[in-house]
Specification:
Blueprint (H helix, E strand, L loop, with lengths): L5 H11 L5 E6 L2 E5 H11 L4 E6 L2 E9 L3 H10 L4 E6 L3 H5 L9 E7 L18 E7 L2 E8 L4 E6 L5 H8 L3 E5 L3 H11 L2 E5 L6 H12 L12 H17 L11 E2 L7 E2 L1 H7 L13 H5 L5 H12 L5 H16 L1 H11 L5 H9 L5 H20 L6 H8 L5 H10 L20 H28 L5 E5 L3 E7 L3 H6 L4 E5 L3 E5 L1 H34 L1 H27 L5 E3 L4 E6 L2 H10 L7 E5 L5 E5 L6 H17 L7 E5 L3 E5 L12 H15 L5 E5 L7 H19 L2 E5 L15 E11 L2 E10 L7 H8 L3 H19 L5 H7 L18 H7 L8 H16 L18
Parallel strand pairs: 1-5, 7-10, 9-12, 10-11, 13-23, 18-22, 21-25, 21-26, 23-24, 24-25
Antiparallel strand pairs: 1-2, 2-4, 3-4, 5-6, 7-8, 8-9, 14-15, 15-17, 16-17, 19-20, 19-22, 26-27
């Protein structure tokens, strides 16, 4: 067995402490990985796998990434599910050699990089939160806590295990911490949310230890000042703090004081509904196609994150909703002011994340100037805002003041365009620090400084030929001719260094010191700048709490003006929101579909009305596929959601009675990984709705029962509609192809029929996309199949079968076997042969020509004749070419 080198022994010792993470082991300008880490990283990053030495007689696999570009590799690894322990050199190689020539540079892990603990700008989406969450159940008490260490957000709420899935769907955390032993119970729920699950020892969830950690973090003697928290809530919050201490190696982020949330304060939306309505994510998983993408006109990262929070968690507190709507109304009414505010907001940096990076000591000079720029724009925005405003905006304005001293300090200390890293220097402005200015002068103008000393010595001694020179042996020295040597010896300042044939060389204490300072000026300048950087950072962190308030205020102003810009530009109206059960919408539109139609330059969106809670709580919607039923269902749900998020809505008018829960069962999908068919998924989601919906819920259901046999599906849809009406007693839009259900409108007092209108013309169906009261007479499925491009023979055969079925139904029913006997399987007419194109007159004329018998004159005349025939050819006259022209041109 080969001996293990000291460096490899150090690596193995550190790696043993982080068995579940890839170890980025710093070696000079590279992070190196060895053994299995190297194999896994090389495959994930698509980089070369090499080897370095042997261990246990086996080659040691190795790969590496440059330190200066490590962030990009980190992002790739995190997205692929890895965790990375970053191991840095804690001393210089020169310092290590002082302990012995074979001493290994001391190294240690400075940070464990996980999905929920990212702070670097390049690793995060600027316009989205990156939450780290923790869930714990203590006997009958459960809680969920979550934090975004890149912005300081910190929240907690009591939560039953059954509600964990919907809350994870709302927050979309990157990582969820659970107590060891809970992994199996929560695996399915966490997998659905897309979060990485991290088990943590039970001790991290101990409520007494958690309370001590939280009190130490916030420097308080008790958590009572922040609210009354249950044991489970304290445990969940404490687990997050414990995990941050582990991953950040003691450098805790600037978390804000915890905010306790309650389920009753926000609209409850389950995971399936969020997915079906595409609230913050489209069907492809990204922003494209989502409601968020359609309505986002925010100009700052903080405003964008606030918008996503509002759409994910519409309020159920009437005063909160009204306050938000009042602010948007003010911004709409003050159009010129809103435009000026948005112009200023464009220059607002991300204060929250700059603060967080500085707090974790991962910031740089640009974070300092980001804070300065944010304060400058905050002052400009405060100056624009009047005193007569809605309360929400007035509170935001008050949070913009109080930073004049800090802004002035940063403005005096920092240059306009600083470098990325503090170690690069050059970010402190000239004139701010006298010593730094001197070091820079020595570094940049050493020759002129020496020339000034030379002139001074010439004046003091009266020797005009005195020179200050430099060589690699003596460094800087004063040189005079031998004739002036006695005069120099007589001056105590000058110490003899060397005598040559014609010259005598001296030095002075002042010159030696100056030489040292010149040689060390560059390094000393960097040291001074780092010291000043730390001082400025400390000044900022001392004001972290009011700076965070300013960041929130800027986000609120940005979101308010963005929603006003949206309302004005898209002709949206202010909804009337109250505690009633009304859902009355006139001229409602689907914001995503309307935007898509406009971008495509297609037909305008057809607006429709909806009236629930005023005579009928349930609309039974019939009509053909492709007519717009699903769009109608979704648009009304989104209008209610937007209204309670505090936005104007895409409608002529809207009266929204507060919606407590929003449920959606639309679309078809399976879950084969769990052995669930499309119909099983449909039934599971329907069951969740029927078991949970209360009287203030809004439910949209599309084609319940379509995944099974006709009579099974009809009976399930029938029973579901009766349950919604009699048991849940909620508001609902129920779309179906089962026309038999329309009879229930005459039996159930709070059910009304509605249909999407169509027109038929020459056997084709024309969709009008208009919703009106009444029931559809049929589904028009065969016509839709024809529009989809089914072969004519299939469409014709379908019409024959449909006529037979309908005739049998009118005659009292027809048995399937009898129908099959009456309609032979191969009775469909064969497709017609393609029609032969008509003959061309030009072609016929050419066939009658004998070129060898034509004279030149006759040939030319024949060409003119053929051209004349081409001009009047009925076959070629209107045949287009690739350029949009006719062939004859």
């Amino acid at each position: 067995m080969s001996n293990v080198t000291p460096m490899m022994a150090q690596y193995l010792e550190i790696k043993a402490q982080y068995p579940d993470a890839l170890l980025f082991y710093r070696m000079g300008d590279f992070y190196e990985l060895f053994f299995d880490d190297a194999v896994a990283a090389a495959e994930a990053l698509d980089i070369a796998l090499t080897k370095r030495g042997k261990h246990l007689e086996q080659d040691i696999p190795m790969c590496g990434v440059p330190v200066h570009s490590a962030e990009g590799y980190l992002l790739t690894l995190i997205r692929k599910g890895f965790r990375v322990a970053v191991c840095e050199q804690m001393e210089s190689p020169e310092a290590a050699k002082k302990r012995g020539s074979k001493s290994v540079v001391r190294r240690d892990v400075v940070r464990l990089v996980t999905p929920g603990t990212l702070t670097e700008e390049s690793l995060l989406e600027a316009r989205r939160h990156n939450y780290l969450a923790a869930f714990i159940t203590l006997r009958d008490d459960s809680a969920l806590a979550w934090a975004d260490i890149s912005t300081g957000e910190f929240h907690v709420m009591p939560l039953t295990p059954v509600r964990l899935g919907p809350e994870l769907a709302r927050l979309v955390p990157s990582e969820l911490i659970v107590a060891e032993g809970q992994e199996a119970d929560l695996a399915e729920t966490v997998t659905d949310s897309g979060a990485a699950m991290t088990p943590l020892g039970r001790a991290a969830f101990d409520s007494q230890g958690a309370e001590k950690r939280l009190c130490a973090l916030f420097k308080v003697g008790s958590l009572d000042a922040f609210g009354a928290f249950s044991r489970a809530e304290v445990s969940a919050m404490g687990a997050i703090v414990e995990y941050l201490e582990i991953t950040q190696k003691g450098k805790l982020p600037l978390l804000r004081t915890p905010v306790r949330e309650a389920e009753a304060r926000v609209m409850q939306i389950d995971a399936a509904t969020r997915r079906n309505l595409e609230i913050t994510h489209g069907m492809n998983g990204g922003r494209a196609g989502s409601l968020l993408a359609a309505v986002d006109r925010t100009l700052t990262a903080g405003g964008a994150r606030l918008l996503e929070r509002r759409l994910s968690s519409p309020s159920r507190v009437l005063d909160v909703v009204q306050a938000r709507l009042d602010s948007v109304q003010f911004a709409v009414d003050q159009g010129r002011l809103s435009a000026d505010l948005r112009a200023a907001l464009r220059r607002v940096p991300d204060l929250d994340r700059a603060l967080s990076r500085l707090g974790l000591d991962r910031g740089g000079p640009r974070d300092l100037t980001g804070i300065r720029g944010g304060l400058e724009q905050a002052a400009a925005i405060a100056a624009l805002l009047p005193d007569d405003m809605p309360d929400l905006l007035l509170q935001a304005k008050q949070s913009l003041f109080g930073h004049d001293a800090l802004h002035d300090l940063l403005d005096q200390a920092l240059v306009a365009e600083p470098p990325l890293l503090a170690r690069d220097g050059g970010f402190i402005a000239a004139g701010y620090d006298a010593e730094l200015d001197e070091m820079r002068q020595l570094r940049d103008e050493g020759r002129s400084v020496i020339a000034g000393m030379q002139a001074q010595y010439q004046q003091d001694t009266g020797i005009s030929s005195l020179k200050i020179k430099h060589n690699n042996v003596l460094g800087y020295f004063v040189e005079v001719t031998a004739t002036h040597a006695d005069k120099m010896h007589a001056d105590d300042r000058f110490k003899h260094r060397q005598t040559t044939a014609n010259q005598v060389r001296f030095t002075t204490v002042e010159l030696s010191q100056m030489e040292t300072r010149i040689l060390n000026a560059g390094g000393r300048a960097i040291e001074i700048e780092k010291r000043l950087y730390d001082a400025l950072k400390a000044e900022i962190l001392d004001r972290a709490a009011p700076l965070a308030q300013t960041a929130r205020a800027l986000a609120e102003i940005d979101l308010t003006t963005a929603l006003s810009d949206l309302a004005t530009g898209e002709n949206w109206c202010r909804p009337r929101v109250d505690g009633s059960r009304a859902l009355v919408i006139e001229g409602g539109r689907h914001p995503v579909v309307e935007r898509s139609l406009r971008k495509q330059g297609g037909d305008p969106f057809i607006a429709n009305d909806c009236a629930l809670g005023v005579g009928a709580d349930i609309w039974l919607l019939t009509g053909p596929n492709m007519a717009g039923k699903s769009t109608f269902l979704r648009q009304n749900a989104l209008i209610a959601l937007l209204a309670q998020a505090g936005s104007f809505v895409p409608a002529t008018s809207a009266h929204i009675g507060m919606v407590s829960q929003l449920f959606s069962r639309v679309g078809a999908s399976d879950d084969l990984a769990r052995g669930r068919s499309t119909f099983m998924v449909e039934m599971v989601e329907t069951a969740a709705i029927l078991n949970q919906a209360d009287a203030h819920a809004l439910v949209i259901l599309d084609e319940i029962g379509r995944g099974t046999a006709t009579y099974d599906g009809l009976s399930i849809a029938w029973a579901t509609l009766e349950h919604l009406h009699g048991m849940n007693r909620c508001r609902a839009l129920f779309a179906t192809h089962y026309h038999e259900l329309t009879q229930l409108a005459g039996k159930l007092e709070r059910v009304a029929n509605a249909t999407v209108t169509v027109r038929e013309h020459d056997g084709d169906v024309i969709f009008l996309h208009e919703v009106r009261k009444g029931a559809a007479d049929r589904s028009y499925g065969v016509q839709v199949a024809k529009l989809a491009g089914l072969p004519d023979s299939v469409v014709a055969r379908a019409r024959v079968v449909l006529d037979a079925l309908e005739q049998g139904e009118r005659m009292g029913g027809v048995k399937p076997k009898a129908l099959i006997d009456d309609l032979p399987l191969f009775a469909a007419a064969p497709p017609p042969a393609p029609a032969k194109p008509p003959k061309s007159g030009v072609e016929e004329a050419l066939r009658g020509i004998s070129p060898d018998e034509l004279s030149p004159r006759e040939a030319l005349q024949m060409l003119y004749d053929l051209r004349g025939m081409l001009d009047y050819s009925p076959v070629l006259d209107d045949t287009p070419t690739c350029a949009g022209r006719s062939r004859r041109s």
